[in-house]
Specification:
It is a single chain. About 10% of the residues have low confidence. By secondary structure, the chain is an all-alpha fold. The termini are far apart. It has two domains: about 200 residues; about 150 residues, no CATH class. It binds heme C. The site of heme C (HEC) has 27 residues, from α11 and α14.
Amino acid sequence: MSYDSESEATKSYTLAWIAALLLLVGFVVGLLIYPPLYEAPKGEAGQMTLFIGRFHPILLHLPIGSLIFLAMLEVLCMGRKGEAKHGSTALLALFVGAAGSVMAVLAGIMLSREGGYTGGNFSLHQTMGIIGTAGVLLALVIRLMAMGQGNWELLHAYRALFFLSFGIMSLGAHFGGNLSHGSKFLTQHAPEPIKSQMIAMEKWMLTLVETPKAEKTEEKAPEAPKATEAPKMVEAPTPTATPTTPPPTPAAGEKLVFANLIQPIFVAKCNKCHGEEKQKGDLRLDTYEFTMAGGSESAEKKNNIVPGKPADSLTYQLVISAEDEDMHMPPEGKDQLTKEEIAILKWWIEQGASNTQKLDLAALPADLQAAASALSK
Ligand code: HEC
């Protein structure tokens, strides 16, 4: 039975079918060329891939806008009159939303090839984005069928599928927001009952995708080298120990511990994600003030760096955690800190995490002097 016996049912949707099928094929081929990965990508991605990937944050607004518009239209289309009046507009919004989703998903996968995207938030974002998009594409096909046949029941089925897919996509989008703004962005200022509900739901979803923490083996959680306990004011080390170590001349004293030992570590291993351009977890490590101010977790507690207390300092906790820990820094697969760099970081925090302490290589534990000398060059 046709729901609209006048004209709609007899209309041919040939063009719309061709567009929808092209979109479907584009999505599948795109996923074959850029399969979603859940671990650090191997090898370098091409410049073009990385270039297009950076359009993800722009492209994703297209499906947001058109699918929200469609959701409102679909409420009107629940009645036969509404469908007759707005059905073709809904079809157009659905097509634009589906096309935008396909582009956003493929660009998102290309963006992930930059590396550094692992963990629960990323897995959920990628998986739900793809499932939601597949759902919207299927919904597009079903709506076309329903409109072509004038099949009212099929149109109801379409609508259910659309709202389901839209819901999945929206939730998935939220985990993407967590990736770029830090996981507290949405909940931080939420009123209390909502806040705990949201956090509980998020935690539960994350447990679905996160592999249970692997038993940490001793070697995996490296202790900072023992020798950091060496007395601070040791005399210059035996000449044979570290021939590269310059004597603590006044010239060496002009350098500063933070600027010449700590910052070079951050620049080499952290600031790609915590610098001027990107602030993952809302954290910048490119100046002393930013480093001390902390990020989304540590700003309030003032514990990104706790002078004198490495064990209480979030940055130190994260760099010494096992590499497969969720919040391990730098993230799994990235260039890791060396044992000496970790020990130097620890030493600096123990010394009071100062911005002005002069660098005196001889004041460092003997086994760190060579590494410190290399860093401060
Ligand atoms: C490839 C990107 C990347 C690199 C490199 C990286 N981080 Fe991170 N870092 C992140 C992301 C993403 C988060 C946010 C995680 C979250 O909120 O779930 C984060 C969060 C943090 C936080 C938590 C901040 C807060 O207050 O919430 C600290 C501390 C941190 N990183 C320290 C470091 C240090 C130190 C290094 C270098 C040794 C480093 N990171 C290197 C991506 C990176």
